[in-house]
Amino acid sequence: MNYLTAILIFNAWSGYESAYSCPLDFVIQHGQYNVTTNGYILLFGCDKGFFLYGLRSAVCFGTVWSNPPPKCITNGCPKVESAGAISVEANYEGSQLSFRCAAGFELIGNDSIHCNGSHWSAPIPKCVEKRGNLSCDFETKDLCGWSHDPEGDFDWTWETGTTPTQGTGPSYDHTLGPNGQGHYLFIETSAPNKNGYQAILKSPFYMADQSGQCFSFWYHSYGSGFLSKLEVFVWKEGEKKEDLTPRFTLDYVTGREWQNENFYIPLQNEPFKIMFVGTRLKGHKHDIAIDDVSLGPCPVITRLCVNVQHVSKWEEDRTRSL
Ligand SMILES: *[C@@H]1O[C@H](CO)[C@@H](O)[C@H](O)[C@H]1NC(C)=O
Ligand SMILES: *[C@@H]1O[C@H](CO)[C@@H](O)[C@H](O)[C@H]1NC(C)=O
Ligand SMILES: *[C@@H]1O[C@H](CO)[C@@H](O)[C@H](O)[C@H]1NC(C)=O
Ligand SMILES: *[C@@H]1O[C@H](CO)[C@@H](O)[C@H](O)[C@H]1NC(C)=O
Ligand SMILES: [Ca+2]
After folding, report:
1. Which residues, 6+ apart, have CB-to-CB distance to 62 below 8 Å?
2. Distance between CA atoms of residues 93 and 114, nearest Å
3. What phi, psi does 181 have (nearest 5°)?
4. Ligand 3: distance of its center to the CA of 119 in Å?
5. Which ligand is closest in space to the CA of residue 124?
6. Which atom of ligand 2 is nearest to the CA of 71?
7. DSSP-based three-state secondary structure for 39
8. Over residues 273-284, mean pLDDT
9. Which residue among 4, 24, 32 is best mutated to probe the pocket of ligand 1, counting the most ligand atoms within 8 A of its Cβ?
10. How many C-beta atoms surround the C-beta of residue 300 within 10 A?
11. Domain of 194: which CATH number?
12. Residue 94 is part of which domain span?
């Protein structure tokens, strides 16, 4: 017994007939429909040469149809092929297309279009890169879209409380503080990591129109000696880390407090990422940590807040971009 038969039996048994008043105010281009059972059921059909795209029937529930009428579609529309981030699946001999985007991209427009013989039902959709979260406190394991670069020798560790080695690293995160059980990321400088090993963390893509602002982050650099290094870069697709100049470098101990830093990102003409590179230089007593990153308007009184070396770099870029 199919769905339709079941409904007919239910209908006969319950005596609902008089209650059907679903609207019959639509036309099906290149097709027709027949009204049956006093307006309770519609049966759809398409003209010769057209495919029926959708359901073959509809049932009236009081005043609304169970589903929209199908479309009668055929081929003959301009060809659309997969290219770049967009992939196309053709059905009904090319009369209907479904679209998907590669990871990291989102679809703008309809994910499904169909053809009436000459025109597509909607413009061809586009895949655009997803916009990265503007800030992250690293409180969830998805790291707000930040990711470990497989080119690194090891990954940044997601941690709460102290780091495993005594005398180095933070005792708590920056977001929630001493009693908060918050999370941060750090580079584990103990074995098995070796001297020269790097951990690379990349932000999601930011769009070019999100440049011209400041990137702010908190870091924690406690341990003994000059043992590890933190570098922060602005990176674009295809660029090699070796060819880039870090926008921030730290290779010394600053103490047990979290420190804030920010730098200006000059206007870019293509999507970019922020890249944190942590390098173990010598020994296991310098676990550098980061937390609370954000991209946004530059602080007004930068001069008073950050050390002189970085103010000059910030001002230099700013002046150049004005
Ligand atoms: C509608 O009824 C007509 C006349 O009986 C028939 O030729 C046609 O095939 C029917 N269409 C559908 C979709 O059932
Ligand atoms: C997708 O297409 C349907 C009709 O096929 C239309 O009603 C709808 O507005 C379209 N959506 C977008 C986002 O273009
Ligand atoms: C297909 O749709 C376009 C625009 O909606 C319309 O101008 C054209 O007449 C339609 N063609 C057919 C064969 O229905
Ligand atoms: C932004 O962060 C939220 C929460 O962590 C996450 O669910 C979402 O996927 C992120 N967006 C992107 C584009 O990565
Ligand atoms: Ca945190």
Report:
1. 19, 20, 21, 22
2. 11
3. 60, 30
4. 6
5. 2
6. 5
7. helix
8. 90
9. 32
10. 8
11. 2.60.120.200
12. 86-129
Cβ neighbourhood burial of 272 (10 Å; 0-12, 13-18, 19+): buried
* Best of 30, 119, 120 for a ligand 3 pocket test (most atoms within 8 Å of beta carbon): 119
Q: Look at residue 53 in the predicted model and tell me its pLDDT.
A: 97
Residue bearing the CA closest to ligand 4, atom 4: 144
From the alpha carbon of 132, which atom of ligand 4 is closest?
13
Q: Is the CB of 36 under 6 A from ligand 1?
A: no
For residue 105, pLDDT beyond 60: yes
- For residue 197, being part of any structural domain is answered with yes
* 318 domain residue, yes or no: no
What's the pLDDT score for residue 312? 43
Answer yes or no: do 98 and 65 share one domain: no
Identify the pLDDT of residue 39. Answer: 81
pLDDT tens per residue, range 255-276: 999 999 999 999 998 889 999 9
* % of the chain with per-residue pLDDT over 90: 62
Bridge partners (DSSP) listed for residue 138: none
pLDDT in tens, 222-243: 988 668 999 999 999 889 999 9
Q: Does the predicted TM-score (pTM) go above 0.85?
A: no
Q: Are residues 208 and 281 in the same domain?
A: yes
**Domain of residue 91, CATH code:** 2.10.70.10
Domains identified in the chain, total number? 3
Residue nearest to atom 1 of ligand 2 (CA): 110
